[in-house]
Amino acid sequence: MGEKNLHVANTFFNIGLAHQCKGEFALAARAYDRAIDIREKLLGRSDGGIASVMNSKANACKSTGRSGHGEAMKYYLMSLMIRKSEAEQKPEETAIVLSNMGILCREVKDHDMAIECFEDALHHIKYNKGGQDHPCVGMALNGLGNVYLEKRDFTKARMYYEASLEAKKKTVGIRHKAAARTLINLGRLRRLDGEFSGALNAFTIALETWISAVAFEDIGTANLLVDIGKVHWFSKDYAKATYCFFETSKLLTLLDIAPSHKLWGEYMKYMAKCKHKLQKHGLQPIRCDSLDRFIPYRVASEALPMV
């Protein structure tokens, strides 16, 4: 009977993961609660499996936004306590929880605590003693880069992003979506620092990686199109920027993204700015060759929007 009930707990856990992947975070949290209740009755609160479910529930709560941050931290801390009390220590699992806590602390602007969590995660996997071969290394280093970027310490942010990228090359490879995320962060740093050519290079590699690892028809691709458009905008190449934002709107429409989504807001804001600049200088949008090769639904004769 116990084994059967454990199977039920695992089923609820998988249901939670499925809801989480679809963005149904409240339903995911409910499924995780069922899994936690069953495992606790069978194996007690010190079971490592419960720690994993608690970490996943915390991730779901965090994803609901500010209203779920308190609940998320509560479950991260419970998961962490179980991991640290396990007879057979699993430093990698502990590091993952600490990294997730670091992400949450950064989101609530507790930068000092975020740094402490990420550094503690690296300590657990002995990063400074040759333990660079776990995927959590790249995650923690990327997290530190994000914190220092928000603190406007571009030198440290760059150092951690570059270290994260090197770590991810060793563990998952440069063509993995995890590597693409760090490339995106590095591109945003370069754009903020006025390195437009370097930013465009990072975003282009990230776009190619994202399409290969995930899909073109994905919200992550739309985010990257906006990022590339912003680089062209800030480098005053308004014609190419307009083209990027035009392609963003097509993809958002294709994905049936709700008008309330923040990317539609970004599109409308920058498209209006671009049209104003093009009209002022008597220009029209032009195609961006480096972008065109990634767009599978491109029709060669399709006309660009006139302004």
Description:
Keywords: Repeat, TPR repeat. InterPro entries: TPR-like_helical_dom_sf, TPR_rpt. The protein has 307 residues and is an all-alpha fold. Among the domains are: 1-89, Serine Threonine Protein Phosphatase 5, Tetratricopeptide repeat (Alpha Horseshoe); 203-307, no CATH class. It has helices at 2-21, 25-43, 48-63, 69-85, 91-107, 111-124, 135-150, 154-171, 177-192, 196-213, 219-234, 238-254, 262-281, 289-292. The radius of gyration is 22 Å and the shape is globular. The model has no long low-confidence stretch (mean pLDDT 90).
Q: What is the topological layout?
A:
Layout: H1 2-21, H2 25-43, H3 48-63, H4 69-85, H5 91-107, H6 111-124, H7 135-150, H8 154-171, H9 177-192, H10 196-213, H11 219-234, H12 238-254, H13 262-281, H14 289-292
Pfam families: TPR_10 (PF13374), TPR_12 (PF13424)
Keywords: Repeat, TPR repeat
InterPro entries: TPR-like_helical_dom_sf, TPR_rpt
